[in-house]
Amino acid sequence: MEQYVIKGGNPLVGEVEIAGAKNAALPIISAAIMTDETVTLENLPDVNDVNVLLDSIRGIGAYVERIDRHTVKINGSTIHGCAVEYEYIKKIRASYYLLGALLGKYNNASVPLPGGCNIGSRPIDQHLKGFRAIGANVKIDHGTIVATCDHMTGAHIFMDIVSVGATINIMMAASRAVGRTIIENAAKEPHVVDVANFLNSMGANIRGAGTDVIRINGVSGFHGCTYAIVPDMIEAGTFMMAAAATKGDIIVKNVIPKHMEAVSAKLLEIGCEVEEFDDSIRVVAAKRLQRTHVKTQPYPGFPTDMQPQMSVVLALAQGTSIVTESIFENRFKYVDELSRMGANIKVESNTAIIDGIEGFTGAQITSPDLRAGAALVIAALQADGYSVIDDIIYILRGYEDFDGKLRSLGAEIEKVSTESEIQKFKMKNGCM
Ligand code: EPZ
């Protein structure tokens, strides 16, 4: 079992290059199999979720060739079946995007119910409602979603909840329906826009992505293209929070500053300096930060995927902060771990009341999910002493070379898998 061992206390200083967005890459890989021509994807993040999804499309016969660490060629002409194996699906929730992709291309998809981070009940009723609206028969048979249709017809769909996954999934399938589909109350996240741009590059006709009404005119087929994935706003935000928590000075490069506005605004509000450039942002935290209130919302609101990292920063700020999680009900599981590092946080229902402390103390902690895991790493980087973080498998799902990038900013962190490696790290870093 891999762990991170960290000696805290160094302010993080320097420049860090942000990878392509995992949450855009996953639907785009799925959509890439919707043409029989070759698609070349660039700026793909080298993270576990992406690699599992590439394996799962190989599993149904797609040709996948890795050109370099961040570039992959995909050809869907060799697909021999529409049933995706549970082995892949149990590992990544985003495999549900293969439903929309296979249904759109072959009018037939069979995908086991998804796994993924345990951050709440995570139903997929809105995805299925959308597929049904455009003419699919959808049933759940022994834990597998089976969607079939003779032909799909455009429809007017009003989403009951703003859902990233459902918006993207319906957009993919409806791109191949006959006639026009209108999705109202659509999600507006940058990765929704990126998927729409990608589908349009393959020949789709999608307008309005990035607003809450998306109009899709179905087309009869897609062609190959070359497409570069948008930068990862959550990875960028995580490094911005690492600067804030460690009283550091970090320039995050290869970002779209507009995507970071909610995060930048909160950091400014609590006393960080935030400087925006064309495709980079500098965050400097020269003094103790101040309390604030944060409520997670769909984009352009404050992202739920940044809530744990923000809470770690607020746990160090002067005064009492209130953080309300309004997207997923189970996203405060890191609080018990953070308390063992000295944080003073009380959770009531979907609200965390955080009384700021001066600093954390290193501890042995466990990563409960992807973003919470990254947040605990930030806490350990600030902490006095050393920490060992278990279950980093979650973190590896979504952050490329997290420890390497942190080391380049001056962090003392190693990925280890044995007790003797931990002891070696401690000797080397003077923690004995
Ligand atoms: C995506 O999950 C991301 N995952 C999540 O990223 C992210 O936290 C989330 O969007 C919100 O931004 C991927 O892109 C792979 P939703 P998704 O559908 O699509 C409810 C990370 O750390 N809902 O927008 O599953 C749902 O329960 C992760 O990278 C329904 O009720 O999220 C939630 O309360 C984890 N019915 C809300 O909507 C549905 O059919 C928003 O979920 C669908 C969703």
Brief characterization of the structure:
By secondary structure, the chain is an alpha+beta fold. Helices cover 32% and strands 25% of the residues. It folds into two domains: 3-19 and 231-428, UDP-n-acetylglucosamine1-carboxyvinyl-transferase, Chain; 22-228, Enolpyruvate transferase domain (UDP-n-acetylglucosamine1-carboxyvinyl-transferase, Chain).
Overview of the structural elements:
The protein is an alpha+beta fold and 432 residues long. It has two domains: 3-19 and 231-428, UDP-n-acetylglucosamine1-carboxyvinyl-transferase, Chain; 22-228, Alpha-beta prism (UDP-n-acetylglucosamine1-carboxyvinyl-transferase, Chain). It has 15 helices and 23 strands. A four-stranded mixed beta sheet has the order 21-22-1-23, sandwiched between helices. Strands 2-14-16-15 form a four-stranded mixed beta sheet. Strands 4-5-3-13 form a four-stranded mixed beta sheet, covered by helices on one side. The radius of gyration is 22 Å and the shape is globular. The two termini are 23 Å apart. The model has no long low-confidence stretch (mean pLDDT 95). Ligand EPZ binds next to helix 1, helix 5, helix 6 and helix 12.
